[in-house]
Amino acid sequence: MSLKVALLGAAGGIGQPLGLLLKQNPAITELALFDVVPVVKGVAADISHVNSPAVTTGYTKDDDGLKHALTGAQVVVIPAGVPRKPGMTRDDLFNINAGIVRDLAQAIAEFCPKAFVCVISNPVNSTVPIAAEVFKAAGTFDPKRLFGVTTLDVVRSSTMSAQAIGDPTGAPKYTIPVVGGHSGVTILPLLSQSKPALPESLLGDNEKLKALIHRIQFGGDEVVEAKAGAGSATLSMAYAGYYFVQRLISAAFEGKTGVVEPSYVYTKDEASLASEIGESLDFFSVPVELGPEGVKKLLPVGKLSEYEASLLKAALGELSGSISKGVSFIQTPK
Ligand code: NAD
Ligand code: LMR
């Protein structure tokens, strides 16, 4: 089997460690690293010495680099764009990143229209709708193949929950679905559905529960503040991004079944989701069963606690505005 993965924004804080993680996946036979900065060629030369199968090449804009990086790609991962500084929201990144994602999506539509596309660039709540609108305009949109990567919220949920219950080394045990979007109050970790269940000493203590959910929702700020102007989460994001991509690869290309990961996907016309959340949104993060076609099935959000249901209301309002902002960025004539 041959499998080509293209990573766009490969010289960045996320791109470099994510490229390294992708390189060590034995299923990947070709790894194309694209960035607008020339150092990407050095990053590719460096990573290419790792003795795994993926033939690794670096491309910049020169010599039709984006075209060469994307042609034949079956999976495209996009961490291209600017990160936050303290005091900024993810939406503050819209002005720069919207155009970056639009242009990259246009190139994907042209050079690898059938690829699975995993968008990391913020604000994810808007950049995924932007990519979808570009694909629709190009006639290549397949809702089963477009994913907003929200896995860092899932990763944080298990780590921070384990810490909150005084079992910090137990983080890997807890699988917690996260639904909604990827920004502040739109991030809705369903702690009541943790497997294994979290203890009553947490779930029954409103103050502790509130503090934990707030910490998960604003986990990105912890890193942005600690890095003090030097960027946002890169290493944990590379871990989370790789985790999602290798799960997708295992379901789409390696025949693995029962692979379920939350992701921010196209949910328009999903009547059962609309009746669960009380509103019809074009995009929403839900647990997704992955398969050869990408999205095999959207799984239900499931039963929410009373507190989670109240948080869902707050999430829906912000999310719907972010989706419309992304859609009008492409649809409104400039
Ligand atoms: P970074 O600045 O370190 O790296 C971004 C890279 O993108 C740079 O190398 C830059 O040259 C490149 N780039 C810019 N325009 C490009 C273009 N048109 N084509 C290709 N490459 C281009 O930033 P980072 O820390 O790696 O973060 C990247 C993005 O990921 C940010 O928008 C950040 O907010 C987002 N992010 C998302 C999540 C998530 O959970 N989804 C988590 C962390 C960060
Ligand atoms: C995160 O959640 O860490 C990312 O979305 C980056 C950010 O801006 O916080």
TrEMBL record:
Residues 4-148 form the Lactate/malate dehydrogenase N-terminal domain. NAD(+) binds at G9, A10, A11, G12, G13, I14, G15, D35, N97, I120, S121, N122, M237. GO terms for biological process: carboxylic acid metabolic process; tricarboxylic acid cycle. Substrate binds at R84, R90, N122, R156. InterPro entries: L-lactate/malate_DH (IPR001557), Lactate/malate_DH_C (IPR022383), Lactate/malate_DH_N (IPR001236), Lactate_DH/Glyco_Ohase_4_C (IPR015955), Malate_DH_type1 (IPR010097), NAD(P)-bd_dom_sf (IPR036291). Its EC number is 1.1.1.37. Belongs to the LDH/MDH superfamily. MDH type 1 family. This is malate dehydrogenase. It comes from Leucosporidium creatinivorum.
